[in-house]
Amino acid sequence: MEYGYFTTSPLNSVRVNFGEYMSKMKARDDIHRINGIPDYAFPLDLKLREQLRKIPFFYTISKQIAVHAEARARQLETAQSVMASPTQFPDIFNMARDCAKRLGIGAPNVYITHDQAMNAYTYASDTVTPTIVVTSGIVERLTKGELKCVIGHECGHVHNEHIVYQSVCDVLANLLSGSNAIIQLLSKTNILLFYEWSRAAEVTSDRAGMICADNIQDAINVNKKLAYGSFLNQEDVEINIEEIRAQLNDLSTVASVATEILQTHPSGIRRILASDEFSRCDLLYKWRPDLKKPGMKLQSKEETDAAVSKYIAVLKEDRKEDNQ
Ligand SMILES: [Zn+2]
Q1: What is the pLDDT of residue 1?
Q2: CA–CA separation, 183 vs 178, rounded Å?
Q3: For the chain, what is the mean pLDDT?
Q4: For residues 83 and 110, is the Cβ–Cβ distance under 8 A?
Q5: Which long-range contacts (C-beta less than 8 Å, at least 24 apart) are formed by 68-71?
Q6: Spacing, Cα 262 to ligand 1 middle (Å)
Q7: CB 232, CB 74: distance < 8 Å
Q8: What DSSP designation does 56 have?
Q9: Cα-to-centroid distance, 319 and ligand 1 (Å)
């Protein structure tokens, strides 16, 4: 048979053994998992998630909410937004594929939606077919390298199976009109536990974003820009990490604590400091030896986690405790 320019079928060189492919993927994935958990996960994320899981029926009901929310979101985004593909927003399409491949999850569908807020969010009920939404605000204010870190962060939520728990976010954010079933399951203490877990989960996913980066500094810049808002058509604003650290030390008023304990994300300066710490973690360079530079002074995962625990603890007394 003729094959155009080829004398033999080009398909002959394509490996089609699915079992072999899966075992290679599993072996690659196992290197970066400890007891089935991604090795970069922030320990407080795991510890608090375990506590949430012990709330009777919480996981079962949350999973149902996640499945429903994903199906509904896919329909809404398909109607209102534009999905990245090889011919529509191909850069974003390729970023998502790169990040998913790096972490070992299914390639997500990424939608770009009209919203001037800098935001990105994910719907998923498994790790195979997630849906990620990025707003026009975040696409236009970040560089391509930074946007890839945002998509990597969202893939991190899928990789760590955060989405089931995060799906109750909307419910908690609007308690009065939320699902009675969830509200009845959660005492006030458990609601605070949920928010604390959510902030810890963001630390884990920021690490995933850095693991997916083309350039480590891009991942730190994302958190800087999320903090100050980024400015259109303006060069980056210099951020001095020591001044950010001093800002955190000033954060001691009752009012700021009362606000932060009900936030799903760590405040901007905490995320900058947490990502700066992970940029020096030896584990990051086990994932990305290609990004390691000569002479880098690295620290262990344990040292990184201990420093980050202090940065993200909203209550001052928690900063002195070992959160592991
Ligand atoms: Zn997130």
Answers
A1: 44
A2: 7
A3: 85
A4: yes
A5: 69/123, 69/167, 69/170, 70/123, 70/124, 70/125, 70/131
A6: 16
A7: no
A8: T
A9: 22
**Predicted local distance difference test score (pLDDT) of residue 266:** 94
Residue with tokens 């009845």: 184
Give 109's strand partners: 131
- Among residues 68, 89, 153, which one has the least CA distance to residue 118? 153
Say if CB 174 and CB 155 are below 8 A apart.
no
What residue type is assigned to position 267 of the chain? S
- How many Å lie between the centroid of ligand 1 and the Cα of residue 143? 19
Return the percentage of the chain with pLDDT > 90, whole number. Answer: 56
Query: 10 Å Cβ neighbour count for 44?
Result: 23
Q: What global pTM score does this model have? A: 0.85
Residue pLDDT, tens place only, 216-273 = 999 999 999 999 888 776 777 788 999 999 998 887 666 677 788 888 899 999 999 9
Confidence category of residue 67, pLDDT binned at 50, 70, 90:
confident
Alpha helices per DSSP H over 32-123: 43-53, 58-80, 90-103
For the chain, how far is it from start to end, CA to CA, in angstroms? 64
Hey, what are 168's tokens?
A: 């109750």
Q: How far is the CA of 132 from the centre of ligand 1 (A)?
A: 11
- Bridge-based pairing of strands 131-135 and 109-113 is parallel
Token pair, residue 107, equals 């390639």
Query: What percentage of the chain has pLDDT greater than the value 70?
Result: 80
Per-residue pLDDT reduced to its tens digit, 93-115: 999 999 999 999 999 999 999 99
Residue recorded with tokens 């399409």: 93
Evaluate whether 67 touches 121 at the Cβ level (below 8 Å): no
3 state SS of 187 = coil
CA of 8 to the centre of ligand 1 (A): 48
- Both tokens of 215, joined, read 């350039």
